[in-house]
From TrEMBL:
Name of this protein: Metal ABC transporter permease
Section of the entire sequence shown: 303 to 613 of 616
One BP term from GO: intracellular iron ion homeostasis
Keyword field contains Transmembrane: yes
Lineage: Bacteria, Pseudomonadati, Pseudomonadota, Alphaproteobacteria, Acetobacterales
Gene Ontology cellular-component terms listed: plasma membrane
């Protein structure tokens, strides 16, 4: 019996030291302090995903408090609402909590208190998969698959016809560029293929999102400076994807949000100012100062002014 017991005892001690190491590792990664995993409700509400099937999303944040770790609140009571088809732009210095707002929309995390509402219901009432289907993102930096440029666009809705892919590419102002490539839509791109510029990749992402046809759109603007022609093409492409769709712009270049229905100036997790561009300029506060600073630096780098100047 002793012979049997010794190895078991040995295994037991290995098990306990592995467990301790795992807990240490979790602590190291900060996982134990993170918000608990979000869970789907037992009886989820249906949520239409596509603009072709339902009107654009009605979106609201109601006094949202949230932090990634228990000891550090990041959003201290943020409220705003966007009517169906409206466009809200969120600006503010780096670390203000702009991307946190978009992560809460996807319900990557739950709020500490307050609500994120879509179509008049708390996002916790929907299935996560349905939320992610209804929201489209044009990210700062798009990852391209090692495949054809056509496939990279079709990924927005696998099964789309060539005609639909080309239609989306035209709206995203990337069709003519694709036709100029050696093998057109069959040209391979990505790490092992043709490298696209930041502006071209962004337009591929926009075409992808046009195909996906989500009811809510998040534009996470690139900070990088673009030449005037590219900037204009991207603006036209963004207008095509955001028209008619409820849109949240995480803005880094102020020039893109002049036409926003509402601009939310976030600072230290609070809404410091809100309103339309002209009102905020007239007010002569934080936004006006960001605008003036960006204007001053415009010739050198259109993306840098706001980040550098904000307090
Ligand atoms: P930027 O303009 O630089 O992208 P931002 O306004 O989007 O900044 P957020 O990314 O929302 O800022 O971050 C807000 C705060 O939350 C920052 O202080 C950041 O360090 C912190 N934060 C962001 N993600 C996490 C995370 N996963 N765990 C812990 N803290 C985080």
């Amino acid at each position: 019996l002793l012979q049997l017991y010794a190895p078991l005892n040995f295994l037991g001690s290995i098990y306990s030291s592995i467990r301790t190491s795992l807990v240490d590792l979790e602590h190291m990664l900060g996982l134990l302090d993170e918000a608990v995993e979000v869970a789907d409700p037992a009886h989820p509400l249906p949520l239409a995903a596509h603009l072709k099937d339902a009107p654009p999303v009605v979106l609201a944040f109601q006094d949202v408090h949230f932090g990634y770790r228990k000891d550090r609140e990041i959003l201290h009571g943020v409220s705003f609402s966007v009517p169906p088809g409206g466009l809200i732009a969120i600006v503010g210095p780096t670390g203000a909590g702009k991307s946190t707002v978009s992560r809460l929309l996807f319900r990557f995390y739950d709020t500490w208190s307050g609500k994120v509402m879509i179509d008049g219901h708390d996002v916790r009432e929907y299935r996560q998969a349905d939320l992610r289907e209804a929201i489209g993102v044009v990210p700062q930096d798009t990852v391209l698959f090692n495949d054809t440029i056509g496939y990279n666009i079709a990924y927005g809705r696998l099964g789309a016809t060539q005609e639909e892919i080309e239609q989306a590419a035209k709206l995203a102002r990337i069709h003519d560029f694709i036709l100029s490539l050696p093998e057109g839509y069959k040209t391979r791109v990505g790490e092992r293929g043709l490298k696209l510029s930041g502006g071209e990749k962004q337009r591929v992402a926009i075409a992808r999102t046009i195909l996906k046809d989500p009811r809510l759109l998040i534009l996470d603007e690139a900070t990088s400076a673009l030449d005037t022609h590219t900037e204009r093409e991207i603006q036209a492409a963004l207008r095509a994807v955001s028209a008619e769709r409820t849109t949240v712009v995480i803005a880094h270049r102020l020039s893109t949000i002049v036409e926003a229905d509402e601009i939310l100036v976030l600072g230290d997790g609070l809404v410091k100012e809100r309103g339309r561009h002209a009102d905020l300029i007239a007010r002569g506060g934080l936004y006006a100062a960001m605008w003036a600073a960006q204007d001053a630096g415009q010739d050198a780098a259109p993306g840098s002014g706001m980040e550098a100047s904000a307090p």
